[in-house]
Give the backbone structure.
Amino acid sequence: MTAPTRRDQEAGEPWHASSADEVLSRLEVTPSGLSTDEAKIRLERYGENRIAVAKAESIWRILLDQLRSVVVLLLIAAAGVAWAIGDPIDAAAIAVVLLINVAIGFTTEFRARRAMAALRSLEVPRATVRRDGHRTTIGARELVPGDVIELEAGQAVPADARLLSAAELRINEAPLTGESAPVDKTPDRPIDPDAALAERATMAYQSTAVVAGTATAVVIATGNATEVGRIGVLTSGLGEERTPLELRLDALGRRLVVLALVVAAAVGALGLARGEAIGFVAQTALALAIAAVPEGLPAVATITLALGVWRMARRQAVVRKLPAVETLGSATVVCADKTGTLTAGEMRVTVLATADETVRVEFGTEGVTFSADQERRDPEGLPIADLLRVSSLVNRAELVEGADENGHAVVGDPTEVALLVLARAAGVIRERELERTPEVRTIPFSSERQWMATVHEDAGRRVMLVKGAPGRLTECAERELTASGERPLDDAGRERWRQRNREMAARGLRVLAAARADVGDHEGESLPSLTMIALIGLADPPADDVPETVDLLHAAGIRTVMITGDQQLTALAIARQLGITKDGEAVEGRELATLDAAALAERLDNVAVFNRVSPIDKLRIVEALQERGEIVAMLGDGVNDAAALKKADIGVAMGGRGTDIAKDAADVVLADDRFATIGVAVEEGRVIFDNIRKFVFYLFSCNVAEVLVLLIAGLAGLPQPLLPLQILWLNVVTDTFPALSLAVEPAEEETMARPPRDPRQAILSREFLGWIAGYAAVITAGSLTAYLIALDDGAPTHARSVAFMTLALAQAVHLANARHGAMVARPRRFGRNRWAIGALALVVALQLLAMYAPPLAAILGLTVLAPRDWAIVIPFALLPLLAGLALGLVRRHRGG
């Protein structure tokens, strides 16, 4: 029989469903392992056990990407025309604007493309392997399919492997499967070939951690053929998704190009028909092209996003991709992994069921409290005191001194950690208990026994303390412990314990039973007659503020969907607790695999929970939502989330507990690991888009006014009212600073009370274009009227100076309309945005500098204005503000 090739590895053979002997036979190996020579042959065949990484994007590619904008391309063409017609000053000025825009874009977009490289951090450096019949340690990269490896607590699994033998083996697979609790592993359990990844008890997967027990296993896959490697291949095969903002700005740019070319061509053709000189026609067309393009738009958009990045970073949301800042504001669905995202990612005791009552357990700054029916229970009283002794003593978690800022940390199996934390919080210290009741022996947990016990000397008698599966311990219980002592336990009493177990499990709790027995000289590993103490309900509790954030998102019209590797009962219970669903259904990964794209899309309206899902399932869910036109935000922290994070419109990873690959595949990282921060980020995203609309409205009103001034003057046969360099000055200098002040406008009151905007809606909607055209007409009318009055009184250069100043100041006061949503309907104190005041002052100062500084005035072709000229400029410059105030009064009057 021929050993499998790498293609066989990647074919996804169900090794988990084959017996250990079948796997060994298929791999042509014995339990004593491979020979050194055979290992070398297989290493050449399969290659090293490493995850291939994608080549990082070069800085030149990132730089070239900055030139893809149609606005930038139009500016390049304008610079070329200026140079061709012998106007090097204009060409140089346009080139400077280009360099500024490209530099800003390059600086903000330049970041390490490390999503695949982060996978290397998941590789295990060393492995214990059997070669030539001997136990040895080798570099994990030398592992090949067929190698027999040994695993023990504290190690990471170095490759995907089928278990051959195991003793009390438990593996934490949370980063790979999303399963919140460590998984019991056994080599002999029958497994369905179609079992989900989280249900394959016969397997150990690369990068997962052994938290208890030992095992031997045979490697069945290495490198990219491992489950982790497949996620890497899946992730690397996904391109960078363009954000809604990028798509909108591109569409906007194309419309600008069409506008600029059509207007320039029309005026150029008109000039040639009149017999004007080609040079003059080219200069006029160039002025119109420059007027049609808001050169400051790329820079203002980039700086607005960068300011959003800064504000979000202050609120613990670190943005890795600039356009993603706004995308969260567009989100219509938030898909969230449960463990470590919606929940705290740690087990905690929340409920105790004693013989008499159900006791709630609450942790606070002063320790732990026990209460039932609103009354506190004394932990010193029975049976809580005995329960705390079981929690502390029947436990192999450890307290490590100096492990954190508080001087200690508890490490070990998360369930045992939760029990030890409970005992310590209630004042039961293991070391003191062991001094009082020394441990005689331990009966370790095994999946066959389903319980663990320790035997102690207690006042001259031997006592066995037991924790384990409720069903198993209830079978052996003959008595039960009450607050007043012990009482016999009959069949009806056992059924009562079983019913409590079922009720707690239905609430999504992991349930353990605690019991004790006087054992005397009993030395066997079977259970004696037990006294039931209590049932212990453990949960991965909701993270702070999650229910409130789910409600906030719901009010903002955003659905929350839970995607988890946990079991369905647990997932649904947590989803109801968090307010994600009331009566919604859940879809399990096995059912999901049977649904085609159309069937899945049909189910999405009613499904708020997906459980037992694989990385590919998560990707399919995101894609199905996107096919429906949703803007999807995906939150996760594990390796299994990486592909979905990258595919989503915006991927959000947890910064503290998140894996490197999750963080590097994401667009945003939540530094504080709080789901509540996503609500903050959504609000910031909406504010950013509102502000982008405001400065787009402002810039386009100004630029359309410039085009109309030139177009109407050209059609009327008047001298050109603005020179190309004057237009460039207006667009880059005096327009940009007011537009930038709009980037820091505070949030509107209704920001999180309105539904998400239609993701297909363009920035320039029909209504929006109507407001732009209306205000542009007002600015045009004022500027042209001032120009005509000045033209009657003097030379074109003087009239041009009046038009230049009137247009600049009219655009500056138009800032008030842009701030208030096209009209001053609800006047705000200008002090809410001090930058707006500063921008207006700066525009006035720059305009005066341009006119009264001789070198600059000479370059721009300006003359000094007399007092009577200012009497013309100021009234006409105020027309846009007066129009906004009038429209605002009309709207308020109609509103009631």
Summary: Residues 1-11, 111-123, 402-407, 823-829 have pLDDT under 50 and may be disordered.
